[in-house]
Write a structure and sequence with these properties.
Chain A has 394 residues and is an alpha/beta fold. Helix content of chain A is 43%, strand content 13%. Chain A has a 5-stranded mixed sheet with strand order 6-5-9-7-8. In chain A, strands 3-2-1-4 form a 4-stranded parallel sheet, sandwiched between helices. Classes of the chains: A alpha/beta (394), B alpha/beta (646).
Chain lengths: 394, 646
Amino acid sequence: MSERKGYILFIDVEPNTGLKKALTKKRTEVIADIRNSGLKGRGGAGFPTGVKWNLAASASSDTKYVVCNADEGEPGTFKDRVILSEYTDDLLEGITIAGYAIGAETGIIYLRGEYEYLKKQIVDTIDKRRSEGWLGKNVGGKEVFNFDIEIRMGSGAYVCGEETALIESLEGQRGEPRNRPPFPVNTGFMGCPTIVNNVETLVTASRIIAKGVDWFTKYGIDKSTGTKVYSISGDCEKPGVYEFNIGITIAELLKEVGGGNAKAVVMGGASGRVVPAKDFAKTVAYVDAPTGGSVIVLGQERDMLDVAENFLEFFVEESCGQCTPCREGNPLLLDGVKRLKNGTCSMEYLQELMSLAETMQLASKCGLGQSSPNAFLSIIEHFETEIFGRVPVM
Amino acid sequence: MEDKKINSDTSRAPKSVKPHTIKIEDTDGIGGKVKVTIDGVDVRVPFGTTILDAAKMINVHIPTLCHHEDLCVAGVCRVCVVDVEGQRTLQASCAYPITQPIVVHTTSPKVRRARRNIIDLLLSKHYGECYSCVRNNNCELQTLAKEYGVDKYRFGHITERRHEVDNSSYALRRDMDKCVLCRRCVRTCIDLQEVGVLGAIGRGDETVIGTFMDKPLADVICINCGQCINRCPTGALQANDPSDEIWNAIDDPKKHVVIQTAPSPRAGIGEEFGLEPGVPLTFEMNTALRRCGFDKVFDTNFTADLTIIEEGTELILRLYNALVKKDPQIALPQFTSCSPGWVKYIEHFYPEYLAHVSSSKSPQQMFGAVIKTYYAQINNIDPADIVTVALMPCSAKKFECNRPEMSDSGYKDVDYGLTTRELAQMIREAGIDLPRIPKSDFDDPFGSATGSGVIFGATGGVMEAALRTVFELVTGQIADPDALAGQVSEIRGFDGIKYKELTLPEKLGPVPDILRMNKDVPFDSWDWLSGATLKLAVAHGTANAKKVLDDIIAGGKFSECHFIEFMACPGGCLGGGGQPIPTTPEIRKARAKAIYSEDQAYEIRKSHDNPAVVELYVKFLTEGPNGHLAHKLLHTHYTPRGKYIA
Ligand SMILES: Cc1cc2nc3c(=O)[nH]c(=O)nc-3n(C[C@H](O)[C@H](O)[C@H](O)COP(=O)(O)O)c2cc1C
Ligand code: SF4
Ligand code: SF4
Ligand code: SF4
Ligand code: SF4
Ligand code: FES
């Protein structure tokens, strides 16, 4: 299948091994396996998948939904695209297992608008699975487990990757995040309990059922089990999509991709944090440097303020405009970076902006605004000399 | 385990406002109550109570901006954030339902910094010019700035306009440079009114509240109800103020300026002068209006009584033709027509039901037509020199008086619709201390009015007034208004949709003289109504109107009604778009109380007993109710508009 080097995800598994096993278990046993595996969401927030499934499973409702978040819009992230195109069948299997576990009859893949070209392949695979009895009525011969999957195209807005905005968008509304609580596991698509999971999470879940919890927990570290798929880009020799054991340090990762001479890396795309070279001994994912999968390598010549400017331009563009801190805050941070660049930002104003950045992190309505100042703040924290050199002495 | 309903968040379409269930464990075993600790004080609140409401219970003030009691939760301004122990981020207290015991801090340094930053952010983009702003001294943004001691614009302050003021509508004026994007107007228009002309367009810092394709308000399906104005925290929305033109007319010695005053403004205007809601200032207002320079001060209740006669006659004729003559063309139920917001709503959304709307004009328009004809005639004034002003609780009245069909007198029947808020401003400008001036009565010849006219201001009032008259005219027995009110108590109060069946006695009276004036009335006894059951309904707020209409379309119980009162505004006119700001369910209740107590103070409480109305028929509308001249002056037709306008 794939030439990629892998451990859990990028491996070949006999199709439907996981689903067959799942169907011999009780729903609660499937959820218990996922819970015991320690799997955390691979979409960025890292919420324990088993807990999420359990909440949706125990919510009282006749109708429930599984939504596969394939909106992958974080700059520098393209790992879901690879999984979607190379492991389509396994993904559909994972969605079906999730549907079985929580008691849903419908799965929805919310596919990023730019991935339209993958749609036919996915639809064909869905059709194939339906004709083989892995979707539709009595899936895999299991009495009264009916399940089918449909595809909806995203609208091209980054914020629609946020799970409640995604649901709004599915319901035909402007893609704007909702208040939480209530959470989608309780009140999701059309008001029904809904789990939203990342592409990688769902494939990993099917692997766990196929090959067992013990096999899975051999990978990773204590608090973060398994492996993680990364999209690595920027100033390195071998950019691309990689699967690494969780617990790998940034230095090791850089060695694999030929980025040894990096000045810094951005973990988690535009909403992530900038890690300077002195901290490259840190481990990746859920420990010291969380990431939804994007690693951007920054070479020695990079101007850190360019990086911040770039990211903030992205957020100014992508803010849904709903809440005050994010809507009005991002343009001000962007303006601040420009002032820093041309040496017109006073220390005093910089303090105000840092306080503003804290407010954005704390008071924004959704993860976009909450994480948009991360890069700005970490650059100021770690690259003091590079930045303050340009502040005019007041 | 217990299932409880709480409201889902939305700032958008009503279909996403679904009650849903959350399952929680009843952690401290006290049946549905949850313990919350706010700033060190413990309080037990019903499951699902928001932190904001819980704080109110113990008198902890949390500032808000996008929150409004009448509206569903938005959680967008973030001014109300608080610190919930164990949560990484601050939480919007207006949007956070308490479902398990939590500890909340409402004024930690983090919280104060965040609120201050957010207010500074709002101000940075706010085109503030308070002294020339309609909301100066009654503005929630201004209040927030004061509360948080804003002493400088840390993030700048915009001084250039970014948007053009939309002045296209007769009723509303939109200045988006003063908008803080709280979206209360959006929620009002969609959720409360089910009209939905306003929405957020654009993204990020280019977001603006706009209309469909950003058209001027006059070119979209706005019904002019002004409910959005009443809930806007700032001066971004206001009614189109004619007071300069009115002052000019007053100052022009050639002009004879008369004002009619509707029942609701008198119940609300005290709020503009610092009084508690619910203190009527009817007779003080008369004095103030004369001091302002109006030549005559009339009571719209006069034409409310006239409306009852005209609309009641129309109903009786419809009933006769449908029930006795079996004429299939007759549209029943008959819908009231006095709320111009409602009329425009049905023109846009249910144009195929326009035949149901009573052809009787609203009291405002009847008054205008009578003043520029009968009044001009008996006083020997050239109608061209008369300026009629209508003091109304309503912004839609401004649109109504500009309808081309509203000039049956040969002139514009009503020249200006003036709101309660705008009159309060004129009174302040004239240096009058309204609550503390002597009282005076209305002017003749329309001075006499009845309690029936007064209750037009509250939801159910038109229905109740009509029943007082119909009951007495049909049974020939004197109806005691209070006894009747008890009999039809379902019709009062603030339920969104009210329904009542009323069975007439077997033995009915003679057809009264006032009806016999109209020679075309085709019956000379009430036998055909003997023992009949009248089915009646009342709906206020167009979202409720929509429910009733959809039920009629589906052939439900409202399709069997004979008469339905519709008001565009929640609470009826007393909650109109021209009434004092703020508005809340409590304030509207207080105004209703004022209106019903006014009714009881009247000696005459039934429209047909109003001597001035009787005199008008005897001296002027001599062919009686629904007669030829009445038809020409007091009735009209409506325009099917549809939902899409070019
Ligand atoms: C602004 C924003 C964008 C997001 N975009 C994505 C995305 O493209 N794909 C994704 O899987 N999760 C995205 N997320 C995270 C989702 O909200 C959600 O946490 C995730 O889909 C849950 O799946 P998981 O538990 O399997 O990780 C985004 C979150 C935010 C705040
Ligand atoms: S944080 Fe930004 S993207 Fe999220 S709701 Fe607020 S404005 Fe929209
Ligand atoms: S909206 Fe409020 S803050 Fe703005 S100019 Fe008017 S009064 Fe001042
Ligand atoms: S006046 Fe009424 S219909 Fe018009 S925008 Fe405001 S709420 Fe909507
Ligand atoms: S116009 Fe008024 S109510 Fe509407 S969003 Fe702006 S400030 Fe809020
Ligand atoms: S009042 Fe709570 S977010 Fe606006």
